[in-house]
Amino acid sequence: MTQTSGRTPTPPTREQVHAAPKVLLHDHLDGGLRPQTIVELAAEIGHRLPADDAESLGRWFAESADSGSLVRYLETFDHTVAVMQNGPAIARVARECVEDLAADGVVYAEVRYAPEQHVSGDMTLDEVVAAVQEGFEEGMAASGGRIVVRQLLTAMRHQARSMEIAELAIAWRDRGVAGFDIAGAEAGFPPTRHLDAFEYLQRENAHFTIHAGEAFGLPSIWEALQWCGADRLGHGVRIIDDITVHDDGTVELGGLAAYVRDKRIPLEMCPSSNIQTGAAESFAEHPIGLLTELRFRVTVNTDNRLMSGTSMTQEMFGLVEAFDYTLEDLRWFTINAMKSAFLPFDERLAIIEKVVKPGYASLIGQR
């Protein structure tokens, strides 16, 4: 995609992609556990797993998630959520999440989860958020300042606790929580069911993203933006349905697609996950290719690292292999993500100028 004066750009190696600074906006805490951690936590509480050892369990998650069905994909969370019902377990999972992301070269991440799914024991919603924050802070401290991580609090779209979770996000806004989200099956559960929560968040000058346009089409995206006022779109893959590529190669954007591009609304795209849930056929056929050519505000994400057996390095290198992207292209994705983060402007700018740009400049200079 990128053209460098005087020579043909060279796609980076996997090692270079791993070394590059990366920014992650769409990652689920309960979708990124280490298999060994699940085995150990399940043993502590007597929860029965579909496999007894970490290697077999990891394989089971990947195979179960690779079904082409979002509903089946979401069922795999029954086991991860089951072992995250007490403070020490949640803090451990959060700490290991930060450690794993830092080891993958992620310098900033927003990690989301639904507090309401972790109170089947005796924890309150507030205690759940506190446990996650404890783990994040431990992980960041252990990284020596190499990564900054913030929470996104998610409400489940098939439940009725979105206002409660929105209020929780505001209560924790200056203590590690960057924003709000809704997730879960889209069909039959439109975002407008939670309009009171979104209106409350807007009155509080808060940031929020909405899962939309993954398993459901343009109406879900339209409602998320025009009724609910989403700052970002979780996935947003189906915006491609409003784009027509004519036989002569010309491209025509429908009204909604043009709005998304004109307004620079960030798309939190997760290629591996989108393929597993049937939202895309393959990396090479993923809408991210055309959307990048058309200069939508595209970002690259992992979604659920355990279920997809993935990492930011793997997601980005998959795109390199599919589209011959260069380090300059990966830098563009990364700056897109950092610009779109729910972090104060000066903090976003500092990470771009002091971490992202120098990190890529060093790698590009090595070629």
UniProtKB/TrEMBL annotation:
Domain Adenosine deaminase: 21-357
Binding site for substrate: 28, 30, 184
SUPFAM superfamilies: Metallo-dependent hydrolases
UniProt keyword Protease present: no
Cofactor(s) listed: Zn(2+)
Top-level taxonomic group: Bacteria
Reactions that this protein is recorded to catalyse: adenosine + H2O + H(+) = inosine + NH4(+); 2'-deoxyadenosine + H2O + H(+) = 2'-deoxyinosine + NH4(+)
UniProt: Zn(2+) binding residues: 26, 28, 211, 303
PANTHER family: ADENOSINE DEAMINASE
Name recorded for this polypeptide: Adenosine deaminase
Lineage: Bacteria, Bacillati, Actinomycetota, Actinomycetes, Propionibacteriales
Gene: add
